[in-house]
Amino acid sequence: MPTLTLPKILVIGAAGQIGVELTLALRAKYGAENVIASDISAEPELLKSTGPWETIDVLSAMQLQRQVIRAGVTQIYLLAAMLSARGETDPRTAWDLNMDALMNVLEISRELHLQVFWPSSIAAASPSTIYGISKFSGEYLCQYYHAKFGLDVRSLRYPGLISYKTKPGGGTTDYAVDIFHAAIDKKVYECFLKADTLLPMMYMNDAVRATLMLMDTTEEKITNRRSYDISGMSFTPKELFEKIKAFCPSFEIVYEPDHRQKIAESWPETVDDVLARTDWNWKPSWNLCTMVNDMLVKLDEQQMQNRIQKLEMIGEL
């Protein structure tokens, strides 16, 4: 019976919101020694002592290629990006990071016959920001590299992502994470979107699971080489607030829309993910009610653990 060969994975952008949790999931699945986490930022606390870490600048093609060859990498997960709200403050840097990083990874993967995962975003559905334009362009670049060179590159269009483990990194859907921290801290939340702004969202657990499902799918079943849409749930800030308030009766919110409101209004309210459901049996596991309950429980546990650690540090426990 042939021995199963495990992939050797390089996660680029592992310090980000998606990167931390996806790295942990990949290490649980394939073994810590087979998943190299990398970023130009410092190693996050959640990843320390869980597996190998490398400081890599993805914009340096030479540095990236050296690491890939030295470690015997067979798969690259490229997660490094500048998100929508931050990107609007520095469009040139956002474009350079988002597009040059992808081109470097695609070229190295073409030369060395690697498999690639690259995430897109709902911002690509009707691009009105430099982030959305770069993601839209990147989708076609991935499609081109598959058609021209046969590169096995796969992509998902993530909705807004919600996580209790890591904080968001400058996106228009960040409110859906920040609001939970305000509720736990018993603060009035100032929402930067209007109360009735409907957007597609997804709990991080589902986003990680969808990524693993896509990468596990046999190549002949992949019919979309641009990017698969996946859906989780759609809700407004008001709907989310009301669900949280049911658990935190004293919690309050005020709406102070800023420049991100215009970005949100250019995005779709819902997502049609029929192709993902057909090709690789995608189906979300979390809805608004179960997500809110889990987020509040987990954040409350984290807050309690932080208090205990502080008391231990000052010798009161």
- Calculate the mean pLDDT score and round it: 94
- The run of helices and strands is EHEEHEHHEEHEEEHEEHEEHEHHH
Q: Which outline best applies?
A: globular
Helix content: 40-55%
Write a short abstract of this structure:
This protein has 317 residues and is an alpha/beta fold. Helices cover 45% and strands 14% of the residues.
Q: How do the helices and strands line up, and which of them pair or pack?
A:
Elements: E1 9-12, H1 17-30, E2 35-39, E3 53-55, H2 61-71, E4 75-78, H3 84-87, H4 91-112, E5 115-117, E6 120-121, H5 130-149, E7 153-154, E8 156-158, E9 160-162, H6 175-184, E10 189-191, E11 199-203, H7 204-216, E12 228-229, E13 233-235, H8 237-247, E14 253-255, H9 260-265, H10 274-280, H11 288-313
Helix pairs in contact: 1-7, 4-5, 6-8, 8-11
Give your account of this protein's structure.
With 317 residues, this protein is an alpha/beta fold. It is built from eleven helices and 14 strands. The protein has helices spanning 17-30, 61-71, 84-87, 91-112, 130-149, 175-184, 204-216, 237-247, 260-265, 274-280, 288-313, and strands spanning 9-12, 35-39, 53-55, 75-78, 115-117, 120-121, 153-154, 156-158, 160-162, 189-191, 199-203, 228-229, 233-235, 253-255. The strands form four sheets. Strands 3-2-1-4-5-7 form a six-stranded parallel β-sheet, with helices on both faces. Helix 1 (17-30) links the parallel strand 1 and strand 2. Helix 1 packs across helix 7 (204-216), helix 4 (91-112) runs parallel beside helix 5 and helix 6 (175-184) packs parallel to helix 8. It is globular and about 60 Å long. The termini are far apart. The mean pLDDT is 94.
